[in-house]
Design a protein that fits this description.
The complex is a heterodimer of chains A (about 650) and B (about 200). Among the domains of chain A are: about 275-465 and about 475-510, Up-down Bundle (Cytochrome C Oxidase, Chain A); about 520-585, no CATH class. Chain A is about 65% helix and about 0% strand. Chain A has helices at about 10-15, 25-30, 35-65, 75-110, 115-135, 165-190, 205-235, 250-285, 290-305, 320-330, 335-350, 355-380, 380-390, 390-420, 430-455, 475-505, 545-550, 565-575, 590-605, 610-625, 645-650, and strands at about 550-555, 560. Chain A has a two-stranded antiparallel sheet with strand order 1-2. The radius of gyration of chain A is 25 Å and the shape is globular. Chain A starts with 9 loop residues before the first helix and ends with a helix. Chain B has helices at about 25-50, 60-65, 65-90, 95-125, 135-165, 175-200. Chain B has a single domain, classed as Up-down Bundle (Four Helix Bundle (Hemerythrin (Met), subunit A)), CATH 1.20.120. Chain B is about 75% helix and about 0% strand. By secondary structure, chain B is an all-alpha fold. Classes of the chains: A mainly alpha (about 650), B mainly alpha (about 200). At the A-B interface, helix 5, helix 6, helix 7 and helix 20 of A face helix 1 and helix 5 of B. Chain B: It is found in: Cell membrane.
Chain lengths: ~650, ~200
């Protein structure tokens, strides 16, 4: 930065507000741009939405437990499954992955923050605005009811007159902007800000998988944005895009949606793959087997993931050539996925396995995801898929890969990284209860759905009748009841996790600095890490740098001998701390800008005056943002100290 | 490494700390954003191409397009790319007066293009093509309208940039900020070349 230019501060640039430096308490969180605080905020909000989505799922299972269910009306049932899926995908899974990425990605690459800290805060607040708008529809005339894929023309004004779909369209556009900004931010962070010596092939696998995911988002989000904008134009301004009477093509929405929707599937699963690729080696006391294969198979899953979208549309009459091509591409994607599974198995092979809660969840992922992956291959076969389309067999498949895969991966991450983030260990015993209840509950809930689906029980039907339930082993009533009981066992499993968190928070005992004998750079600092992450930017020589600083390999016998403990390494870094670390300062603008965007969006439903107010707030905060330097200048502080350094910076040391 | 600061306006080379790619954070982010924008316009262009011949009410494309007029306004927009290049080059030579001049001209050319589009939309509307008239109408206005909004945002950015430079309140490297807006501007121009070819020149 050119130092001879005049120092400028927000207090000068717009005259209205002072920069929120040195804030304490809730304001410290509200205006923060620290990637770790934002990561925790993402995590808390996402977990809240996980509970909301879970309760919606329990309503669905209650309705279907007995014949002629009366808990929900047909209309409420439609809203329930639509919002269950929307919430779990956009408001839990993606932001929870963003929570892990935000917190650990800079730490894993030895950086002090992300590339654009204020944009990072903007992403979070936009995501929260989008989530609130989506769920506000429950109280403002009913939620969206067209399924998470919201097929047009069914979601057009004629067939979906309630404004639930309008809230859905707006909420997702805003959450989409949040993800897009976040993905650009993380890609730049990974590509530009790695510690010296950390080449791409020395990056931890979690960072690699997050990088692949961000590329998927950058190139798939704009496509669904187009679909959402077209639908919004039709619903709010009378455009004709999905009006079949005007000659519109009903497949347009399906193509646009699934060009986004299928990469989205990998957006959901790859972060979990990344997490367990850290957990499995750590708890097997072995390096990851075939690191380059895991990395490149992840990247190729991402690449091929863009070419398989039409397998969601086999039943729509695409024609034999398209069906054959997409069928082959879909089968091909099983290859890199299989490569990963074998790499994980061989990582554990011959290792000294430590069955911690994190490890249990990671192994759970490998097993359950494989079951879901195998039923996935049966969908790749088009003739078989046309039999399964819109049956519970599909529901079984994607819950095995998403719940058994993604959610288990995220829980593995909770147990693995909790001591890093909060400095306290989650209780292992409760973790074991948590794990087994979730495994048993998940298999009881989703396993029977295979049978229900093959028997022909359609998705999205709100009641079933005893008269048509069939007999003996294939009786729909029996398996629906098993599934519903399973869902409550699953809920108890999640409850064990919440109890564990409360218990751990009350516990005074501090976690050791390196409780798992871990391998990557995030452990080369205190727990929780300081504001500036690293006292000294580490210089990287190895894949698994932290491990190689602790252990040295004997060149002839290849025996690893421990030469240092994690604690000693962290102390050594503290002793050699850098002087003068400048960190980006808190800012009002991300929060204000996202409020402006939310108001602007609501204006599309509630009228132009509200839109104008929103647009003015957006304009005002954009200018405030541009004129505010990201690192606070001495003039932002009340009394800068004499050596030119500010109180905030002084407090870092 | 001591004063490494990780923030929006971090100009890696000024700190003697080189980014791994050699591009500054801002520039890399702009390229990624433009990559994403390609798919946004890709989706809109595909929608238009699918629907351009589908007219049940109102005029057909061939009945209302005024190719000579749109060619002139396209030429104006293309020339604005040239003046943008001159603005970037002046900014890199730290010639504030000339930077300012070329930025004004670029903004004026952009505004002229937008004026042309407003005129064109008005004429089409009078000739019976509304946003809700037909699939062709909806997809035409959505695509060209989105592009017009992009140009307008570009004009606002150029004018704001001039104001900020004039008041000496620019945060970060001035030449790079001009260059970043330039990247955006060229992208919007290139998209127009594609739109002009596909929408206006190829008969449906």
């Amino acid at each position: 930065m050119a130092t001879n230019e005049l120092p400028i501060s927000s207090s000068q640039s717009l005259g209205a507000v002072r920069r929120p430096v040195n804030t304490k308490g809730w304001r410290e969180w509200l205006f923060t741009v620290d990637h770790k605080k934002l990561g925790i905020m993402y995590g808390c909000v996402a977990f809240t939405f996980f509970i909301v989505g879970g309760i919606e799922a329990l309503f669905i299972r209650l309705q279907l437990a007995l014949p002629d269910g009366r808990i929900l009306s047909a209309d409420k049932y439609n809203q329930m499954f639509t919002m269950h899926a929307t919430t779990m995908i956009f408001l839990f899974a993606m932001p929870m992955a963003a929570a892990f990425a935000n917190y650990f990605l800079p730490l894993q690459i030895g950086a002090r923050d992300v590339a654009f800290p204020r944009l990072n805060a903007l992403s979070f607040w936009l995501f929260l605005s989008g989530g609130l708008i989506l769920n506000a529809s429950w109280f403002l005339g009913g939620a969206a009811d067209g399924g998470w894929f919201m097929y047009a023309p069914n979601s057009g004004p004629v067939f979906s007159p309630s404004n639930g779909v309008d809230f859905w369209v707006l909420g997702l556009q805003i959450a989409g902007i949040a993800s897009l900004i976040g993905s650009i931010n993380l890609i730049v962070t990974v590509l530009n800000m790695r510690a010296p010596g950390m080449t791409l092939m020395k990056m931890p696998v979690f960072t690699w998988m997050i990088l692949v995911v961000q590329f998927l988002l950058v190139f798939s989000l704009p496509v669904i944005t187009v679909a959402l904008v077209l639908l919004m134009f039709q619903r709010s301004y009378g455009a004709t895009f999905f009006d079949v009477s005007q000659g519109a093509d009903p497949l347009l929405w399906q193509h646009l949606f699934w060009i986004f929707g299928h990469p989205e599937v990998y957006v959901l699963i790859l972060p979990a793959f990344g997490i367990i690729s850290e957990v499995l080696p750590t708890f097997s006391r072995k390096p990851l087997f075939g690191y380059p294969f895991v990395v490149f198979s992840g990247a190729s899953i991402g690449l091929v993931g863009f070419g398989v979208w039409a397998h969601h549309m086999f039943a729509s009459g695409l024609g034999p050539v398209s069906v054959a091509v997409f069928s082959m591409a879909t089968m091909a994607i099983a290859i890199p996925t299989g490569v990963k599974i074998f790499n994980w198995l061989l990582t554990m092979w011959g290792g000294k396995i430590w069955y911690s809660a994190a490890m249990k969840f990671a192994i759970g992922l490998v097993v359950l995801f494989t079951i879901g992956g195998l039923s996935g291959v049966t969908h790749a076969v088009a003739p078989s898929d046309t039999q399964q389309t819109d049956t519970y067999y599909i529901v079984a498949h994607f819950h095995y890969v998403l719940f058994g895969g993604m959610v288990f991966g995220l829980f593995s991450g909770f147990y693995y990284w909790w001591p890093k983030v909060f400095g306290k260990m989650l209780n292992e015993k409760l973790g074991t209860w948590n794990f087994w209840f979730m495994v048993i509950g998940m298999n009881l809930t989703f396993g029977p759905m295979h049978i229900l689906g093959l028997q022909g029980q359609p998705r999205r039907m709100y009641v079933w009748t005893e008269a048509r339930a069939g007999e003996g082993f294939f009786n729909l009533g029996f398996w629906n009841m098993v599934s519903s009981i399973g869902s409550f066992i699953l809920a108890v499993g999640v409850l064990f996790f919440i109890i564990n968190v409360i218990k751990t928070t009350r516990n005074k005992e501090r976690a050791p600095l390196d409780p798992w004998d871990a391998r990557t750079l995030e452990w080369l600092t205190t727990s929780p890490p300081k504001v500036h992450n690293f006292d000294r930017i580490p210089v990287v020589h190895h894949l698994d740098e932290f491990f190689h600083r602790k252990y040295v390999e004997d060149e002839t016998t290849h025996v690893m001998t421990q030469v240092a403990k994690g604690e000693d390494l962290v102390r050594a870094e503290e002793a050699a701390a850098d002087a003068d670390i400048h960190m980006p300062g808190a800012s009002y603008w991300p929060l204000l800008l996202s409020i402006g965007v939310a108001v602007l969006g609501m204006g599309i439903i509630y009228g132009t005056p509200i839109m104008v107010v929103g647009a003015l707030v957006v304009l005002f905060s954009s200018f405030g943002w541009v004129l505010e330097p990201s690192v606070p200048e001495p003039i932002d502080f009340d009394s800068p100290s004499h050596d030119g350094h500010t109180k905030e910076i002084a407090s870092l040391g | 490494m001591a004063d490494i600061a990780t923030h929006d306006t971090d100009h890696a080379t000024d700190h003697g700390h080189h980014s791994s790619t050699g591009l500054s954070n801002n520039k890399l982010a702009m390229w990624l954003f433009l990559g994403s924008e390609c798919l946004l316009f890709g989706g809109l262009i595909s929608t238009y191409m699918l629907y351009r011949g589908r007219v049940q009410n109102g005029p057909h494309p061939s009945q209302i397009y005024d190719i000579p007029f749109t060619s002139v306004s396209s030429f104006v927009l293309l020339m604005s790319s040239l003046t943008m290049v001159l603005a970037v080059s002046s900014a890199q030579r730290k010639d504030d007066a000339k930077t300012n001049l070329w930025l004004v001209i670029t903004a004026l050319l952009g505004a002229t293009f937008i004026g042309g589009q407003v005129y064109e939309f008005t004429t089409f509307y009078r000739e019976g093509l509304g946003f809700t008239t037909s699939l062709f109408g909806s997809s035409f206005y959505a695509l060209t309208g989105f592009h017009g909004v992009h140009v307008s945002i570009g004009v606002i950015m150029l004018l704001s940039l001039m104001g900020i430079i004039k008041k000496g309140k620019i945060t970060g490297d001035k030449a790079e900020v001009v260059e970043l807006i330039g990247l955006y501007w060229h992208f919007v121009d290139i998209v127009w070349i594609i739109i002009f070819t596909l929408v206006y020149l190829i008969p449906s």
